[in-house]
Fold:
Amino acid sequence: MTVTYRVTHRTTYRYEADVGPGYSQLHLQPRDLPSQRCLATQITVEPAPSDYREWTDFFGNRVAYLAIEAPHRSLTLTAVSTVEVDDRDAPTLFSGGSWEDARDDIRSHRDASARDAAAFVLDSPLVRASVMFADYARPSFTPGRALLEAVADLASRIHRDFTFKPGATSVTTALEEAFELRKGVCQDFAHVAIACIRSMGLAARYVSGYLETNPPPGAAKLQGSDVSHAWASVYAPGLGWFGIDPTNDRFVGGRYVTTAWGRDYSDVPPVSGVIFTNGGTASLDVEVDVIPFTP
Structure:
């Protein structure tokens, strides 16, 4: 089954005074994957930029750059994408080899896929392997256990042990602090899973995108009720990459739209940039809608 989604991601900055110039980088355009096809994306910027460019980064993500030279007191970035996503069954937990076999395969650089995956075993700016994360992961990674079964068990434990609480952390909160708090948002859940997986010598990457959410029973879907989402992806030799969402304790399926992936959040923030000004940001509003529709 294939579902077509219209994804709208709108970010609005309002400033205390006129600012400028400003330069932004956007990871807002969904990727093309075997199970996902981005049919169209339109990015609208208000005020109009003096420079706008697009390219593909090292990880194969679609990236946009823009510059606004004129003074402005607000900035609105809107990306509207039409994406086809194929539904896919959760992987069989016992498929593939053990997690030790996967670790050894990556270490041996046996083939091109294993060599590419090896880069995601290494520490990254926001995620560092450690004894602390290995100790937390070890009850899931028992000797001889199938890799995907171990990863699914780890995700379930993170889901049980950590409280989803917006505002408990921010993008500047260190991973170790979020781990000690046992609170955070999807970014923290994904980073904890990645740190644990890498601490066992395995490859894991950070994936950003969207998840269609259901309204409460009997209630209409609210505009802006969806949010950008993040999850982890683990490399299984011979099978490829599998997304695992510890925030919701499930493997990634047809209700997920993938935008970008990297080593951690710092590689793929939806919007990043710099503005030269003495004033501050008065407000920041983000609205996301993921709506299935019939073309």
In short: The first helix runs from residue 99 to 108.
